[in-house]
Amino acid sequence: MCALDSGYVSCAAVSGVDPNKPLYPVPKIASSEVDLLACAGTRYSYSPNLLALAEAIKKKSVIAFVGTPCQISAIRRLQYAGLKKYNSVKLLIGLMCSECFDFETLIEQHLHRELKLDLQNVAKINIKGKLVITMKDGRVATLPLAEAKQYVRRSCRFCSDFSAELADISVGGLGLDGWNLAIVRSEKGEELFSEAEKAEVIQIRDVTEESNALKLLGRLSSKRRRV
């Protein structure tokens, strides 16, 4: 939102939800605050956001991209290779990611068919040491991570980047309640983050107040590098 409002970019390639298929993530181009807020929330299934990026480039837009570490890495490789059309991507925001789950097997098969959950009435899905599915009526269903692991996408098993190390800003929940941990990695990221704070678009706290989140960041990053 701040990137669009401050003139950094004219649109953002992000992940939204298919209105005809509950919880199914789809790539979107956001060109306004309304567009961005419509894409808010966490999806644990893969969204091919690079498709939205390709569409945004065709529009000759100045672009911010929000995606997983593998997607951030792909864009950086294209930029480093000297492909000029990717110079229009001015800001990369990376989402910390241990793995993505296969939509058909986890969501449609396990949650819908086996657990009998109405996907239309799922309010949100979180990972807090286990998969937590909160329904719109307040009911909560859980799935142990050990059981959910069978639904992880095969390609995720080879990823060595948890925290999107090539992004301008990396963001992740890391077990925090109502907050995200952000890592500013570049001058562009620092400039945007500072302007967002000054404009009171975001609230910040000292990261040292959340020692558990820092420990988890280190542990998950190290685990990914050992893949």
Largest sheet properties: 6 strands, mixed
Q: Residue-averaged pLDDT, rounded?
A: 91
Number of domains: 2
Element-level helix/strand string: HEEHHEHEHEEEHEEHH
What is the count of DSSP helices, taking H or I runs of 4+ residues? Answer: 8
Q: How does the helix and strand content classify structurally?
A: alpha/beta
Strand content: 15-25%
**N/C terminus separation:** 35 Å
Helical content class: 25-40%
Q: Low-confidence parts, pLDDT < 50 over ≥5 residues?
A: none
Care to count the β-strands?
9
> What is the overall shape?
globular
Cα gyration radius (Å): 18 Å
Biggest sheet strand line-up: 2-1-3-4-8-9
What would you say this structure looks like, in words?
The chain has two domains: 171 residues, no CATH class; 49 residues, Roll (Nuclear Transport Factor 2, Chain: A). It is 33% helix and 22% strand. It is built from eight helices and nine strands. A hairpin with a 7-residue loop joins strand 1 and strand 2. The longest helix has 15 residues. The radius of gyration is 18 Å and the shape is globular. The protein starts with a helix and ends with a helix.
Topology:
Layout: H1 2-5, E1 11-17, E2 25-30, H2 33-38, H3 49-58, E3 63-67, H4 69-80, E4 89-95, H5 103-114, E5 122-127, E6 130-135, E7 140-144, H6 145-148, E8 169-172, E9 181-184, H7 187-198, H8 211-225
Parallel strand pairs: 1-3, 3-4, 4-8
Antiparallel strand pairs: 1-2, 5-6, 6-7, 8-9
